[in-house]
Design goal:
single chain; alpha/beta; Rossmann fold; about 30% helix; 3 domains; about 550 residues
Length: about 550
């Protein structure tokens, strides 16, 4: 089965592009197009309305039950299926069950388009990380049973696809048209502003934001219907206020949003798929939402709008949103998604560093986890450069170590270690523990009983070179003065750790500090004396362990 990703910005025209694709399939001979929408009735109705102009027949197995069953019966008995006929419905288990006889007995091309695919576990291994959802099992069956020719996966949030084991055969980027707007003006709210609104109190900052909005305002602060009612009651005298949630007695008439000024209040039903016309201001608080949900909520603002867009939220929420968009924009590229899964996963691990407090993954992550590095400054250098004496005069860096060419001083000379062997450590551990390490850590700054730095001399390993089967082999060899003479080390170098004394190490105020790595290059690190440990946190995305 061929897998195609159809991706684009939120509210940029993905639905239009997917309907165009559906129409192309509808017009082909011997082709059965299937569309599975986001599983809410509002979204399906919106899709059906936009697809109503297509030249052909679109059947919903639930709503057009008799007609659909008759077509299936004809297929089973005669092998005949009407031309220019497609199937559409909610992406749920009943829909996929009803598709089974068609997929088994229709012998033409079969192509399914899955909207908001990142909510499913498509491309995830069925192991201990699998969340048992019937719909997801059925989607996986299509791949395992090979009953489809192609599956097109549609979404504006693609992290789930990137961390999956899918090999995408094609990635199609939907470019926004002229006039597309995702530029956000941020208005800061306090925690009191947000909590007050949840409790039905409209503080002055919120009043001003709503009053200054020319078109529609969306308020998304909680999924509880009681909260929606409290907010709506507090704003009833401001504008036309509407509640959109699962407790509505009748489907909401979205056409009312096309004119006038309205405030719409809700939660979960604002997340995906549905278009809300003329939303100019979004008042948002979804601190605990994972990345995709948060982005989809913010995306209700975007679209082809000639007026400025305002997002009102707390500083913390704003930080999460910026980090989430950074990660999404980073991975939603053809060259990334087209990588083989193993290569793609390695790239994500090395490049995606979200805000440590942003919840990146939802429950369907396939075992991926967000790993927090408590102190990024000690984890790895900010950057590494070739050795150059000029770095010792750089005003933003305090160098703690110096590279000295040639053999280390003779055994017994004051201030120098008598041996360089460091016990029974492996070469790699020797490097990790004593050389390629932050120069402000304890191992480099310990003092002896005389107040001198304990490790004034750090001798990097040697490269031993030999020929094996006609090829040159190089291997690290630990320097050991019981084996190596000074003459052996004349072309080597050593690291003088005494360039900065204990006082300088403790009181250094430059943004960065420098050290020498085992290969002789300069490593530039964050200064541990600046900022708090919390400010030096970092998170990386880790794939599941085997």
């Amino acid at each position: 089965m061929k897998f195609t990703a159809l991706i684009g910005q939120m509210q940029s025209g993905k639905t239009t592009a997917s309907i165009r694709l559906f129409d192309e399939l509808l017009q082909r001979e011997d082709c059965l197009p299937i569309f599975a929408t986001h599983p809410t009735n509002n979204v399906y109705q919106d899709w059906a309305r936009k697809a109503a102009h297509l030249d052909g027949t679109i059947l919903n197995p639930r709503d057009d039950r008799k007609r659909y069953n008759d077509i299936v019966d004809d297929l089973l008995l005669t092998g005949q299926f009407p031309e220019r006929t497609g199937i559409a419905g909610l992406n749920n288990a009943p829909f996929h069950r009803r598709l089974a006889p068609l997929l088994l007995h229709y012998h033409g091309e079969k192509h399914i388009i899955v909207d908001e695919y990142d909510q499913n576990q498509i491309g995830m291994d069925m192991n201990e990380y699998w969340v048992p959802v019937k719909r997801d099992y059925m989607l996986r069956t299509y791949d395992v049973a090979n009953v489809l020719d192609e599956m097109t996966l549609l979404s504006a949030t693609n992290l789930a696809g990137a961390v999956s084991n899918l090999t995408f055969d094609e990635v199609e980027m939907i470019k926004p048209g002229e006039g597309y707007n995702r530029e956000i003006h941020w208005e800061q709210l306090s925690e009191r502003d947000v909590e007050g609104l949840r409790e039905g109190q409209v503080r002055q900052t919120v009043q001003e934001i709503i009053a200054e909005t020319e078109h529609n305002v969306m308020i998304n602060l909680h999924d509880r219907t009681e909260t929606h009612e409290a907010i709506a009651s507090a704003l009833v005298n401001w504008r036309d206020v509407h509640i959109i949630n699962s407790k509505q007695d009748a489907p909401f008439n979205f056409d009312v949003l096309k004119e006038g000024k309205h405030v719409i209040v809700g939660g979960g039903m604002f997340a995906r798929g549905q278009t809300f016309d003329r939303v100019q201001t979004l008042i948002l608080d979804k601190i605990s939402a994972h990345q995709a949900t948060l982005l989809q909520a913010v995306g209700r603002l975007f679209g082809y709008k000639p007026y400025p867009l305002t997002l009102a939220c707390t500083q913390q929420q704003w930080d999460y949103i910026q980090s989430a968009f950074f990660i999404e924009d980073l991975i939603s590229k053809e060259e990334i998604l087209m990588m083989p899964p193993a290569q793609r996963h390695a790239w994500i691990r090395s490049h995606c560093t979200p805000d440590p407090k942003l919840k990146v993954f939802g429950p369907k992550s396939g075992g991926w986890k967000q790993h927090i590095i408590d102190d990024i400054a000690t984890h790895a250098p900010e950057y590494v450069v070739e050795y150059d004496e000029s770095w010792y005069s750089n005003p933003t860096i305090t160098m703690f170590q110096r590279l000295v060419e040639g053999a280390p001083p003779p055994k017994g000379e004051t201030g120098f270690m008598g041996t360089c062997r460091w016990g029974n450590r492996s070469v790699q551990r020797y490097i990790d523990d004593f050389i390629n390490q932050h120069p402000q850590l304890k191992v480099h700054s310990e003092l002896n009983e005389r107040g001198e730095l304990r490790r004034k001399t750090l001798v990097p390993p040697l490269w031993e070179e030999w020929t094996h089967n006609g090829e040159t082999v190089r291997e690290l060899e630990q320097v050991d003065r019981r084996i190596h003479t000074r003459d052996d080390l004349l072309d080597h170098f050593w690291i003088d750790n005494s360039l900065a004394d204990a006082t300088v190490r403790q009181r250094c105020v430059t943004p960065y500090v420098g050290s020498i790595l085992a290969d002789g290059r300069i490593a530039v690190w964050q200064n541990l004396n600046r900022g708090s440990k919390a400010e030096r946190q970092k998170s990386i995305l880790e794939p599941p362990t085997a």
